[in-house]
Design brief:
CATH architecture of one domain: Alpha-Beta Complex
Helix content: 25-40%
Radius of gyration: 29 Å
Structural class: alpha+beta
Number of strands: 8
Strand order of the largest sheet: 3-4-5-6-7-8
Number of helices: 5
Strand content: 15-25%
Largest sheet: 6 strands, antiparallel
């Protein structure tokens, strides 16, 4: 196909463009300014001698938005970094609880996979799927076991989903870390959720 053809099909988008321009002269015609006018604009912006340019502050990382119930809005991501960002953004006492839960899970399941999906940290085992998630609510933190009905003893919180069970932890609750660790270990050995 010759460049002078009146219609050229764009290879990636299948669109037609008519009357293509060619060469340096065509590019010069496409701009509305002459080179001399453009040079005047640039020279007009040069700082005067003796004046210093204002210091520009580097942009600060924006704090995560808290969704309903105080749940941090963290972008979907895989690995420890997004989970730690979620935990750091948990409001008040919930952040310390998040650190304790994360440490317990890592200690109980060495090599655990981590991610943030749907604004909640999830934990899983490679090639087995996800077995647990954490979610912040106004007055408590919810730990969800995706195959909770198969755990012994069964975690106390019921769900509308057939196999899911919950453990709700309120600010002043003293929860049994040994029992939670046992549930985490059991859950990690079951087939997980594919998300």
């Amino acid at each position: 196909m010759d460049i002078r053809d009146s219609n050229i099909k764009h290879e990636t988008h299948g669109q037609y463009h008519s009357k293509p321009t060619r060469g340096v002269n065509a590019m010069a015609k496409s701009t509305s300014e002459t080179p001399r006018a453009a040079a005047k604009k640039v020279s007009a912006k040069v700082a005067k001698p003796g004046k210093t340019a204002p210091k520009v502050q580097p942009p600060q990382a924006a704090k995560p938005v808290l969704l309903s119930g105080g749940n941090p809005q963290i972008a979907k991501g895989y690995g420890d970094a997004p989970v730690q960002a979620y935990i750091a953004a948990m409001p008040g006492w919930k952040s310390e609880l998040g650190r304790r839960l994360d440490a317990l899970i890592v200690r109980t399941v060495p090599g655990v996979r981590k991610a943030v999906k749907w604004n909640s940290p999830v934990y899983g085992v490679a090639d087995e799927g996800w077995f647990l998630s954490i979610h912040v609510f106004t007055k408590y933190v919810k730990v969800a076991f995706f195959r909770g009905t198969l755990l012994r003893p069964v975690p106390p919180g019921e769900s509308k989903q057939k196999e899911v069970r919950y453990l709700d932890i309120h600010e002043d609750d003293l929860f049994d870390e040994a029992q939670l660790s046992d549930w985490v270990k059991q859950a990690s050995q079951l087939p997980g959720e594919r998300m």
